Amino acid sequence: MMSISGERTAARPTPPGPALRRQKAAAANLSVASSVAVGYVTLLSLDEQLRVTQQTLTSREDAWHLAKRQFETGYTSRLELMQADSELRSTRAQIPPLQHQIAQQENALSVLLGDNPGAVKRGEFAQLTPLRLPSQLPSTLLNRRPDIAQADRQLVAADATLASSQAQLLPSINLTATGSLQDRTLPDLLDNPLRLWSLGGSILAPLLNRQALNAQVDVSMAQRNQALYSYEKTVRSAFKEVNDSLDAIQSLWRTVNRASGTRDRCPGNLTYCTKPLP
């Protein structure tokens, strides 16, 4: 395509619609997979909380029976018995809410997997093997995120639309290698207004509709700037999410290490407390 001034106009680019749809589908798939993984781990965590609470309930029951015998023999006062009874009732009251949360999580996970609400087959929380992340990760890994790829495709599509709107501002005609159109020379064509108008307005239309075309360019430019802002915001949000997750992982590992140290000292403390007096 050539303009009437002899300059080559930009060809109208095709917006990357299929690629954008693929990125949207990939983002949806990743969102579903992430929700399933989080839901499954949450379910196992609730199972573990219920198991620990039931073990605690057994210990509270033993403590209550011991406190009751000590009170009946006059070794302790009623206050110790009432305290043991309060702890027993408090622990027992924690079990129904946990069972309800487990049922809710099972139903939500079943629906997310496309099944009817119901029980979910699963393993145990102790079977999960946490992965140790390397100390450094390349930032280029973020390019694999579907949300960033989708924002990138939207920016490319906006650039294509802007280029198309700008190209429509220039009138154009088809030229042969000799500069003729339908066996007429270009100077003869431009000297004859009737022949010029017979081209269907392809030359005059951009000139007559200049205001509307300029408005369309402004709209396309605004859409392109919006797509650019959305892309930058998506990238920054991705970096924030990754940094937050890495910091949370490090914090959780520190918490686990401290809790493990406390757990390892518990048997020694129990042995010391139950050792008979000399």
The chain-level structural class is: mainly alpha
Shape: elongated
Radius of gyration: 36 Å
What's the oligomerization state? single chain
GO molecular function: efflux transmembrane transporter activity
Region (Disordered): 1-20
Family: Belongs to the outer membrane factor (OMF) (TC 1.B.17) family.
Keywords: Lipoprotein
Please explain how this structure is put together.
This protein has a two-stranded antiparallel sheet with strand order 1-2. Helix content is 69%, strand content 3%. The chain starts with a strand and ends with a helix. Strand 3 (180-181) and strand 4 (184-185) form a beta hairpin. The longest helix has 65 residues, at 210-274. The model is unreliable at 1-15 and 175-186 (pLDDT under 50). The protein has 2 domains: 31-129; 140-278. With 278 residues, the chain is mostly helical. The protein is built from 8 helices and 4 strands. It has helices spanning 17-72, 78-93, 95-112, 146-167, 186-191, 193-197, 204-208, 210-274, and strands spanning 2-3, 172-173, 180-181, 184-185. It is elongated, with a radius of gyration of 36 Å. Helix 1 (17-72) runs antiparallel to helix 3. InterPro entries: MdtP/NodT-like (IPR010131), OMP_efflux (IPR003423). Residues 1-20 are annotated as: Disordered. Belongs to the outer membrane factor (OMF) (TC 1.B.17) family.
